[in-house]
Amino acid sequence: MKNLLILGAGTSGTMMANHLRSKLKKDEWNISIVDQYKTHYYQPGFLFLPFDIYTEDQVKKDGKKFIPNGVNYIQKKIEQIFPDENKVKLEDETLSYDLLIIATGCKIAPQETEGMKGKNWHKNVFDFYTYEGSLALRNKLREFKGGKMIVHFTEMPIKCPVAPLEFVFLADDYFTKKGIRDKVDLTYVTPLGGAFTKPKATAALGHLLSEKNIKVVTDFAIEKVDNETNQIVDYGGQIVDFDLLVTVPTNMGDDLIKRSGMGDDLNFVPTDHHTLQSLGHKNVFVIGDATNVPASKAGSVAHFASETLTDNILLYLDGKPLKQEFDGHANCFIETGKNKALLIDFNYTQEPVEGTFPIPGIGPLKLLKESIFNHWGKLAFRWIYWNMLLKGIPIPLVSRNMSKKGKKIE
Amino acid sequence: MEAVLAGNKVNLTEDGYLVDFSQWTKEIGTELAKEEGIEMTDRHWEVIKWIQEQVKADNALSVRGIKKSGVLDIKEFYALFPGGPLKISTKIAGVPKPKSCI
Ligand SMILES: Cc1cc2nc3c(=O)[nH]c(=O)nc-3n(C[C@H](O)[C@H](O)[C@H](O)COP(=O)(O)OP(=O)(O)OC[C@H]3O[C@@H](n4cnc5c(N)ncnc54)[C@H](O)[C@@H]3O)c2cc1C
């Protein structure tokens, strides 16, 4: 018997287990998947939890439920990969593999910024990228009466790069509905040159922030959070005051990658952009947020990648050349508040543009334009996630590679 | 859009970044720096070279990354490229502007 080992049972690992169990012969291949936690979180829901749009129960389920029969689920911490020996050390045993898939994702690293995880952490300095942070922020917002609120992200890459922008739009809506919008001073602080950084999106959406009376501070390279004065300070000397700071800290791959000597500076694993094979070892493949490929770190991207990766693993096992197929395809809904959302569909080389999706010329979804229909799409994504995405079921009409049809490309 | 820099025809993005790094030369870098009001020194070039290497190696660029680079500290980075050092240095280096997905 040969062993296929999947590290991480989040979005990507779970999808790969489902794809591969039905493709690999049960009398030839053992498949095992390892994760430290029992609970599988629906991370996109962390955006909605703080605003009481979703409840706790809607964003978490027992992870094992999504692992197919015939796959061995091991709930343990992974200590280290020994890629030259084809071995992985868990907290109390060592496993051997013939083929390894790394799907350990990435997570926030507030300790990378001075003062961020200080005495005010989860008191008036919050993240919403973890279940704990998102829930603590919900409780804070329920009692928040007004003041200066900053929504900030530290540096790229972060997962779901539009989430901070969505958060500030939803905050505007939330305070408006509560009747206290005039008491909240909302500021969006970004390390980049603008809230939007791509020409088409800037032209189409630049007005949204001023329309909603949200201030924008750009080129802000955070040096520290000052817990005495309640300020964020940047290396260039810019200072912004806050009563409530909602921040997305630096995102990094798991320490396991560092311990294994397999990552870059941020613990992301160097990976071929088009085949998803690791650059270091031929029998190691990488998918999702754990890779260093220049695609968005998003569940939709992992979904498209999983289809290419499944084919490539089968090709690899047959000794055939891999497909240079993955194009960085991403398909993301962006909440803009007031029950509206945008949809963007793009890849490594094509920036988001206007158009219709998924049926060219018809839609019903509109690209790069606000609509109520898109908002329903975003809410439907939760059902699709639990019932289709994780199970590896293809989404009707949406192909793994980005289609140019229906897009306004000059 | 097309432009002529240091006597070479190059393609620039709407905000003045080179579209294709293979068109980059030191002379073009010098021209781009001039537009930003920067007179290049050996020290500037060392930093530019480091940035180009990072981009080639697929490493994400950030001001925090500069701190860990061992090449220079952040104070010097701001002194060399005042304003938005990352935004400006990437432009001179002929590599893409640090950006998000929209
Ligand atoms: C606030 C927010 C909003 C988002 N919104 C969207 C959205 O609208 N659309 C979208 O497509 N995507 C969205 N995303 C991104 C999406 O959730 C991620 O891209 C996706 O979950 C990545 O899947 P993954 O399998 O690579 O990583 P994960 O799902 O994070 O899984 C990694 C798994 O590895 C395990 N692991 C790591 N290290 C170890 C170890 N040492 N030992 C044992 N187990 C380990 C972890 O426990 C985890 O279960 C959002 C994310 C956030 C945070």
TrEMBL record, chain A:
Gene3D superfamilies: FAD/NAD(P)-binding domain
Any one GO molecular-function label of the UniProt entry: oxidoreductase activity
InterPro entries per record: FAD/NAD-bd_sf (IPR036188), FAD/NAD-binding_dom (IPR023753), SQRD (IPR052541)
Residues spanning the signal sequence: none
Classification via Pfam families: Pyr_redox_2
Domain FAD/NAD(P)-binding: 3-127
Alphabetical list of PANTHER family matching this protein: FAD-DEPENDENT PYRIDINE NUCLEOTIDE-DISULPHIDE OXIDOREDUCTASE, PTHR43755
Protein name, as recorded: FAD-dependent pyridine nucleotide-disulfide oxidoreductase
UniProtKB/TrEMBL annotation, chain B:
InterPro entries (alphabetical): DsrC-like_C, DsrC-like_dom_sf, DsrC-like_N, DsrC/TusE
Family note: Belongs to the DsrC/TusE family.
One family name in Pfam for this protein: DsrC
Keyword Iron-sulfur listed: no
Listed name of the protein: Sulfur relay protein, TusE/DsrC/DsvC family
Lineage, broadest ranks: Bacteria, Pseudomonadati, Bacteroidota, Flavobacteriia, Flavobacteriales
Xref: Gene3D superfamilies: 3.30.1420.10, DsrC-like protein, C-terminal domain
GO molecular function: sulfur carrier activity
Coiled-coil residues: none
Enzyme active site: 101
Keywords of the record: Cytoplasm
Gene Ontology BP, a term: tRNA wobble position uridine thiolation
GO cellular component, one term: cytoplasm
Species this protein is from: Gillisia limnaea (strain DSM 15749 / LMG 21470 / R-8282)
Compartment list: Cytoplasm
Keyword Plastid: no
